[in-house]
Amino acid sequence: MADIRPFRGWRYSPSRIPDLSQVITQPYDKISKDLQQTYLARHPNSFVHLILPAAAEPYSYSNTTCRQWAAQGILVRDTQPAIYVLHQEFEVGGQRKTRKSFVAAIRADEFEKGTVLPHERTLSKPKADRLNLLRATRMDYEQIFMLYSDPEGIVEQALTPVGEPALVATDDYGVVQKVWPVTDPGKLTAVRRALSDKVMLIADGHHRYETALNFRQEMEKAGTVADNAALRFKSTAFVNIADPGLVILPTHRLLYGLGEVKWDDVLARIAKLFETKPIKDSAVEAALSDRGRQGQLSRAGTEHVFALHTGKDKTWLLRLTDKAAVGRLVKERSTDFLDLDVVILHTLLIEHVFGIKPGNIEDHVAYERKPSETLAKVDSSKYQAALLLNPTRADQVQKVAAHGERMPQKSTDFYPKFVSGLVSMDIGDNERV
């Protein structure tokens, strides 16, 4: 059973920080060095000081800074446990959308229990970093992103906002965040009951969820941990998988460290599995989409389409023609898993054609969301090649997770991200939820 609870959040004081847009940040793993410096220069109380400090001892610095801000009244704590309704208004593909969610605490159960399911593999370095931060601060600063199924909209009805939002902020990408704390016991109970029998799916934040598990297990080894201890829970932003504002973007792959590459040989190997056709660099986005593929390649075969870019005016559209090849190379996986574009890309192109083993991914593969930036990074010779793909669908994520299978890392890019700095949860030794 999913155990979802309200909590007494820490947030910026409106009287001390009247413009919340000046202090919120993107999630820690989306903050580049340049963006970190931008945040540091933007406001002395930027949330980046807590989640990604520019300090010699970052973990102790974060803890000290958080305690100082609380003592100074820059950060204040809500007096009642709440579920925080969060609406994000944004534009994508020329359309205005609103993604509706709510922030609450969920009991961090092991995946084997089947209450919370992952869909991606994780890397070890980010988990070690976040665990050190948790140890030092005992603060759960950032939410992860969880999907749930509620086709009848029971939860949304219970959490329909009333009045003006308590918090409003606009992030670096023009996404407007609106927050309403809900403390009514009847509404909180209705939400908990509606979701108690649901299976939750991690959409984004696998590293942070597994870090919460690791920290709880570490604390249990050190002594008795109360059943309602806050450290047994993870603050989470929940979105209905049927929400019309749910958007997934593709994450393209950039290749480097390949040594000297003979591209004619590479294309010959690709041609054994894919139909290939040169296209203009400017046509990549349209060619990948169903709308733009007409006339680019024959309609025979499958609809798994990718693009390979190796330099300016050197782009090929690839359509998979030997779908059985994936099953020959990947054993004991479901049909849903084998049908994923990201699995086809990793198995047939990254691993089979380029010879990059899964254990060496971090040494040869980087990631980029924007197609134009992806091509530009290859054209500048920073990377040797790019592989572009279409986004994974939400229903595919749900099906694969239900099989207990995990996709390659960076298989999904849910947009927009949940910003950091709206509300945080205290997980100190004496905290209860």
Structure report:
- It is a single chain.
- The chain is an alpha+beta fold and 433 residues long.
- It has 14 helices and 21 strands.
- Strands 1, 4, 5, 6, 8, 9, 10, 11 and 12 form a nine-stranded mixed beta sheet that branches. A six-stranded antiparallel beta sheet has the order 15-17-16-19-14-18, with helices on both faces. Strands 2-3 form a two-stranded antiparallel ribbon.
- A hairpin with a 2-residue loop joins strand 4 (83-92) and strand 5.
- The longest helix is centred in the middle third of the chain and has 17 residues, at 206-222.
What distinguishing features does this structure have?
single chain; 433 residues; alpha+beta; Conserved hypothetical protein from pyrococcus furiosus pfu- 392566-001, domain 2; nine-stranded mixed sheet; six-stranded antiparallel sheet; 14 helices; globular
Topology (elements, then pairings):
Layout: E1 4-5, E2 10-12, H1 33-42, H2 48-51, H3 58-71, E3 75-77, E4 83-92, E5 95-107, E6 116-117, H4 124-137, E7 139-140, E8 144-148, H5 154-158, E9 167-170, E10 176-182, H6 185-195, E11 200-204, H7 206-222, E12 233-240, E13 247-249, E14 252-255, H8 263-271, E15 274-279, H9 284-288, E16 305-311, E17 314-320, H10 324-329, H11 335-338, H12 341-353, E18 365-368, H13 371-379, E19 385-388, H14 394-402, E20 413-415, E21 425-426
Parallel strand pairs: 6-11, 8-12
Antiparallel strand pairs: 1-5, 2-3, 4-5, 4-10, 5-12, 7-21, 8-11, 9-10, 13-20, 14-18, 14-19, 15-17, 16-17, 16-19
Helix pairs in contact: 3-4, 4-7
